[in-house]
Write a structure and sequence with these properties.
Strand content: under 5%
Number of strands: 0
Largest sheet: none
Low-confidence stretches: none
Distance between the termini: 24 Å
Mean pLDDT: 91
Order of helices and strands: HHHH
Number of helices: 4
Shape: globular
Number of domains: 1
Length: about 70
């Protein structure tokens, strides 16, 4: 993850929460999905994804979390 400071981490979380707020039917679910995304970001990444910039990783995990929630994946 790119967040080198608490301020950058808060900015990253705000961006992901903004995405999730537009995609989830409730604020609570948007928050839960945001937590899920950051759990995935701090966990073990596949090699190809670990080599990608942090923003790409955020978008990948955000899309994956929403698609899983919707039952597509």
């Amino acid at each position: 993850m790119s967040a080198g400071s608490p301020r950058e981490a808060a900015d990253d979380a705000a961006v992901v929460l903004g995405w999730m707020s537009r995609l989830a039917p409730s604020r609570a679910l948007a928050e839960d999905l945001t937590v899920e995304v950051f759990g995935r970001l701090t966990g073990r990444q596949p090699g190809w994804l670990a080599r990608c910039p942090a923003g790409v990783q955020q978008r990948f995990h955000s899309a994956q979390a929403v698609l899983e929630f919707r039952g597509v994946l």
